[in-house]
Amino acid sequence: MANAFDITALTLLILLSLNGIRKGLSDELMKLISVLLAIYITLNFHQFGTSLLLKFWEIPEQYQALIGFTAVFLAMILFMQLITIIVKQLIKALSLGWLDRIGGLLFGGLKALVLLAVILWVTELLPPTWLGSWYQDSKAFPAISGFQQGMVTMLNLDEEVAVIQAKVAGFINTPPSLQDIVPGQLPVDFPDSIDSTRTP
User: Is a pLDDT exceeding 60 seen at residue 129?
Assistant: First the structure.
């Protein structure tokens, strides 16, 4: 029986495939390249993004990996969106007809698989006790998991993924204290008991 993950996977696949037919190959190809390139750049250069942010803000060590990863990924997505707009304007005069729509269908489906692989990768960062057994009951999980592993291997990102997973696991297992979040602040010691009968 299909679970919530299967329904989500099927919905994404249908919606993005139909959207690919509507927009055509050229648009879908550029968006797919954008997602793949953003993931690749983020996994390889998130430490550079973190060091750049640390020049302007003081970030607790436990948060640095997550914030650096997120900042670089979002920056790359925005940059590639700008490139996509420029490319679309350059090829607007070309009309590929039915071939453009079929190509858009295929690339829309492939983009759905990439997004599902990213969602699956993010869930794998969480402790197993948080996830339950949904993946054991899922019909789509084996196929998407295999696609995800193939994508990581093809891009030669096994080591980078393992490092990020280890950092996030350490963050979840040992969350920062208040002193880490607000450096320089000392905790206030309250008396164990207050004598309510004491008068001024």
Answer: yes
Separation CA 123–CA 90 (nearest Å)? 38
Q: With CA atoms as reference, report the closest residue to 84 among 23, 25, 34, 18.
A: 34
Question: Across all residues in the chain, what is the average pLDDT?
Answer: 72
Residue 174 is encoded by which pair of tokens?
């040992």
What DSSP designation does 156 have?
Answer: T
Instruction: Give domain limits for the chain.
Output: 2-171
Reported as a single tens digit per residue, the pLDDT across 158-197 is: 677 677 767 666 666 555 544 444 445 444 554 554 454 5
Q: What is the largest CA-CA distance in the chain?
A: 89
Task: Using alpha carbons, list the distances in angstroms from residue 43 to 57, 69, 75, 77, 174.
Answer: 22, 7, 13, 13, 23
What is the model's pLDDT at position 2?
65
The rounded distance, in Å, linking the Cα atoms of 64 and 167 is 9
Q: How many other CB atoms sit within 10 Å of the CB of residue 44?
A: 14
Distances in whole angstroms, Cα of residue 108 to Cα of each of 6, 14, 65, 116, 196: 18, 9, 31, 12, 70
Is the CB of residue 58 less than 8 Å from the CB of residue 15? no
